[in-house]
TrEMBL record, chain A:
Record text on subunit structure and interactions: Component of the cytochrome c oxidase (complex IV, CIV), a multisubunit enzyme composed of 14 subunits. The complex is composed of a catalytic core of 3 subunits MT-CO1, MT-CO2 and MT-CO3, encoded in the mitochondrial DNA, and 11 supernumerary subunits COX4I, COX5A, COX5B, COX6A, COX6B, COX6C, COX7A, COX7B, COX7C, COX8 and NDUFA4, which are encoded in the nuclear genome.
Keyword tags: Membrane, Mitochondrion, Mitochondrion inner membrane, Transmembrane, Transmembrane helix
Primary role: Component of the cytochrome c oxidase, the last enzyme in the mitochondrial electron transport chain which drives oxidative phosphorylation. The respiratory chain contains 3 multisubunit complexes succinate dehydrogenase (complex II, CII), ubiquinol-cytochrome c oxidoreductase (cytochrome b-c1 complex, complex III, CIII) and cytochrome c oxidase (complex IV, CIV), that cooperate to transfer electrons derived from NADH and succinate to molecular oxygen, creating an electrochemical gradient over the inner membrane that drives transmembrane transport and the ATP synthase.
Protein name: Cytochrome c oxidase subunit 6C
Membrane topology: Single-pass membrane protein
Family classification: Belongs to the cytochrome c oxidase subunit 6c family.
Pfam entry (one): COX6C
One Gene Ontology CC term in the entry: respiratory chain complex IV
Top-level lineage group: Eukaryota
InterPro entries: Cytochrome_c_oxidase_VIc (IPR051389), Cytochrome_c_oxidase_VIc/VIIs (IPR034884), Cytochrome_c_oxidase_VIc_sf (IPR037169)
Compartmental location: Mitochondrion inner membrane
Gene transcribed to yield this protein: Cox6c
Pathway membership, UniProt: Energy metabolism; oxidative phosphorylation
TrEMBL record, chain B:
Family the UniProt entry places it in: Belongs to the cytochrome c oxidase subunit 2 family.
InterPro entries in the cross-refs: CcO_II (IPR045187), CcO_II-like_C (IPR002429), CcO_II_C (IPR034210), Copper_CuA (IPR001505), Cupredoxin (IPR008972), Cyt_c_oxidase_su2 (IPR014222), Cyt_c_oxidase_su2_TM_dom (IPR011759), Cyt_c_oxidase_su2_TM_sf (IPR036257)
Organism lineage string: Eukaryota, Metazoa, Chordata, Craniata, Vertebrata
Subcellular location: Mitochondrion inner membrane
GO biological process: ATP synthesis coupled electron transport
Gene Ontology terms, MF aspect: copper ion binding; cytochrome-c oxidase activity; oxidoreductase activity
Protein name (database record): Cytochrome c oxidase subunit 2
Length: 67, 227
């Protein structure tokens, strides 16, 4: 029982720090980084003209009606 | 446009919106860290695992003043970076004016032969199959792709707000005042927004539709609209 408060406080303060950093890192590597990579991958080989031709053929553009 | 039961942002269609999404992830991470810290400490306190008999603790007071100040700096620096990025002098390729009325938008392309038109929502009774309810308009704002567009926003009567979430744009339309915003989209496509300042009975029924197309197509469209 000697030094119980100090021991517990040390343990739980460390635990709190680990939990909070852990949840932040989980979010960073589970959500934020995949999102950044998804945008990089999308724009790496993106061809705006090809996209435009597909939209034009689908008839969604007011300024470029399908023939 | 947003999907049903969507909670997060719409996919970004401009570099500024991508930056804003990154900043939102950063801010949410900080909020998650703080909330989980508080929840853990609260749980340990309420279950009797943590208590204190301290009455005078100078060191910990210093720690829990300095640490939050550092967290605030960590939030402020990226925020200011994006704020200044949005205000950069960027030599727009096209300037157009968006004027809010009760209850429609009108647009003026005075760079090109005084092209002006009104943009009314298409009522649900007249909506073709497959089109989006309360979002489609009779005349869209067509802009060239990969070009910096400056939009001067004002209003004719009461407050409105010109907002297109996917482009990261929201600018208040104030009568008697010109507010400026700019955007650039690297993708052709159709981008939807809605009036974002309460302006009367039909505030929810004056949407904004921006259509970005390659420059030759934009020139053809502006010629056909002017004639």
């Amino acid at each position: 029982m000697r030094g119980l408060l100090a021991r517990r406080m040390k343990f739980h303060l460390l635990g709190a720090f680990v939990v909070s950093m852990g949840s932040a890192l989980l979010y960073k590597f589970g959500v934020a980084e995949p999102r950044k990579r998804a945008y990089e991958d999308f724009y790496r080989n993106y061809d705006p003209m090809k996209d435009f031709e597909a939209m034009k053929a689908a008839g969604v553009l007011e300024s470029a009606p399908p023939k | 446009m947003a999907n049903h039961s969507q909670l997060n942002f719409q996919d970004a269609s401009s570099p500024i919106m991508e930056e804003l999404m990154g900043f939102h992830d950063h801010a949410l991470m900080v909020a998650l860290a703080i909330c989980s810290l508080v929840l853990y400490l609260l749980t340990t306190t309420l279950t009797g695992k943590l208590s204190s008999n301290t009455v005078d603790a100078q060191v910990i007071e210093l720690v829990w003043t300095i640490l939050p100040a550092m967290v605030l700096v960590m939030l402020a620096l990226p925020s200011l970076r994006i704020l200044y990025m949005m205000d950069e002098i960027n030599e727009p390729d096209l300037t157009l004016k968006a004027i809010g009325h009760q209850w429609y938008w009108s647009y003026e392309y005075t760079d090109l032969k005084d092209l002006t038109f009104d943009s009314y929502m298409i009522p649900t009774t007249d909506l073709p199959m497959g089109h989006f309810r309360l979002l489609e308009v009779d005349h869209r704002v067509v802009v060239p792709v990969n070009s910096t567009i400056r939009v001067i926003v004002t209003a004719d009567d009461v407050l409105h707000s010109w907002a297109v979430p996917t482009l990261g744009v929201k600018t208040d339309a104030v009568p008697g005042r010109l507010n400026q915003t700019s955007f650039l989209t690297p993708r052709p496509g159709v981008f939807y927004g809605q009036c974002s300042e309460i302006c009367g009975a039909n505030h929810s029924f004056m949407p904004i539709v921006v259509e970005s197309t390659p420059l030759p197509n934009f020139e053809g469209w502006s010629t056909s609209m002017s004639s």
